[in-house]
Design a protein that fits this description.
- About 40% of the residues are buried.
- By secondary structure, this protein is an alpha/beta fold.
- It is globular.
- It contains twelve helices and 16 strands.
- The chain has two domains: about 5-155, 3-Layer(aba) Sandwich (Rossmann fold); about 190-415, P-loop containing nucleotide triphosphate hydrolases (Rossmann fold, 3-Layer(aba) Sandwich).
- The structure holds adenosine-5'-triphosphate.
Length: about 425
């Protein structure tokens, strides 16, 4: 490793926003202490910079990544996106590369691949790895700092910082009840029979058979690119490839006349990308209320009864004191809990959580698991929780694994015992 280059891990103390740290690094705020930063051409790879590139790709026809990889960034899986975007950024020959939660939603093989690749860049670049989960510490980077209260201090990665307070949800408050009895929910919410999906000559899913029944709590997992998101979009109604497949949703054959709106009424959905680019000064309560209208942020007038239900959910998650605070000023953990309340406020029969604990620190991830367990075990909503790893503390009742192969991924039901 070169003595001329600086390589840092920066662990975020619990539940802080990384924005002030990124801004401070870009503004060279710490250059008095770390003078090498002052002269640098810095590039960042973060969920936000990747999503901004996707916007440029779609709105402004930026085809730099399409030319390089033959596929647009927006249609890639998260592992493929990171690979393609890293290549793109490295081609710009930055002096310093800041990785913001880069390893977070990568599977074991992808982590090894990227760690080797980044290690091979250490001669050329200053590397800064910002992370929240202890697993995401990069051991080949020589120095480690803790970012807390706007300062960086030397940190020993073998000892975690003190647990931070107010992230718990109210354990004593019962889960809110649906206000009116909706239409009878069938026993089988989702049924896939021999579902096979490919894009041009690329096979993605092969002969998937999967039944999700009322009251179950599923963990859907598989390595990067195995087709988890593709499978979910068959349910959420966003993927035209679902038509012509043998898929039943809520007892009805998909494509037999139901509108996307009707399906969305029955599905609560959260994925981390939903809020990265949300900038409006709306309150936490407005964000929860927007779940009634399937918008992210409130653009309609909510009724009194809807406000009452939103408040009940805020109380349940223990955040009623933040109801009038701007959503974007809240910690990542609080934002996530609010988004889960948003997904639940209309009491959908099915809740889909796609990588809900990504970007959280270990403590916040455990609290998120506790919240999801309570919704699964005390409520009437069926849950599909999607991730690479089973989060500590999460207690699903069933698990479905996608196993990649040359002809697409196969799906198997695994026993949890
Ligand atoms: N519109 C599309 N055109 C071409 N390929 C696509 C398209 N949509 C998805 N794919 C491909 O399908 C494969 C599965 O992607 P998907 O996002 O479903 O995987 P995943 O399991 O969710 O991955 P990750 O965990 O990394 O997000 C990837 O190889 C992806 O490039």
């Amino acid at each position: 490793m070169s003595a001329n280059q600086h390589h840092w891990n920066i662990k975020l103390a619990q539940a802080p926003d990384r924005k002030p740290l990124l801004t401070a690094l870009l503004d060279k705020k710490y250059s008095a202490d770390f003078e090498w930063l002052a002269q640098q051409k810095i590039r960042i790879i973060s969920p936000k910079t990747i999503l901004s590139f996707i916007d440029e790709e779609l709105i402004h026809d930026n085809d730099a990544i399409l030319k390089q990889n033959g596929q647009m960034l927006h249609s890639m899986s998260s592992g493929e996106r990171k690979q393609a975007y890293l290549q793109y950024v490295l081609a710009q020959k930055p002096d310093t590369l800041i990785l913001d939660h880069f390893l977070d939603n990568l599977d074991t093989n992808a982590r090894t691949h990227f760690s080797d690749l980044l290690k091979s860049q250490c001669e050329e670049l200053h590397l800064i790895n910002i992370y929240s989960r202890d697993d995401d510490h990069m051991i080949f980077l020589s120095d480690t700092y803790l970012y807390e209260n706007d300062t960086l201090s030397i940190y020993d990665p073998t000892t975690g910082p003190e647990s931070a307070g107010d992230l718990r949800f109210n354990n004593n408050h019962p889960i809110p009840k649906a206000s009116k009895i909706g239409p009878e929910v069938p026993q089988e919410l989702v049924e896939f029979k021999s579902v096979t999906i490919s894009y041009l000559d690329k096979s993605i899913l092969r002969d998937i058979n999967w039944k999700v029944e009322k009251g179950q709590f599923w963990h859907l997992y598989g390595p990067n690119g195995s087709g988890k998101t593709t499978l979910l979009t068959m349910i959420t109604g966003d993927n035209p490839k679902a038509y012509g497949q043998n898929i039943k949703l809520f007892g009805k054959q998909k494509g037999s006349g139901e509108t996307i709106w009707e399906i969305k009424q029955k599905v609560g959905y959260f994925t981390t990308n939903m809020t990265f680019q949300f900038k409006r000064m709306q309150t936490a309560q407005e964000m929860v209320l927007s779940g009634f209208f399937d918008s992210i942020g409130l653009y309609q007038i909510a009724g009194d009864h809807q406000v009452k239900l939103a408040n009940e959910w805020l109380t349940f998650i223990g955040l009623s004191h933040l109801a009038k605070q701007p959503f974007i000023n809240l910690s990542m953990c609080h934002q996530r809990m609010i988004m889960i309340a948003r997904a639940m406020v209309k009491h959908p029969p099915l809740l889909i959580l796609d990588e809900a604990s990504v970007d959280l620190d270990d403590e916040s991830a455990r609290r998120m698991s506790a919240l999801i367990n309570r919704i699964a075990h005390e409520g009437e909503t069926t849950i599909i929780y999607v991730s690479h790893r089973l989060e500590p503390g999460l207690t699903p009742s069933n698990s479905f694994e996608l196993i990649p192969g040359d002809e697409g991924s196969q799906g198997i039901v695994n026993s949890l015992n």
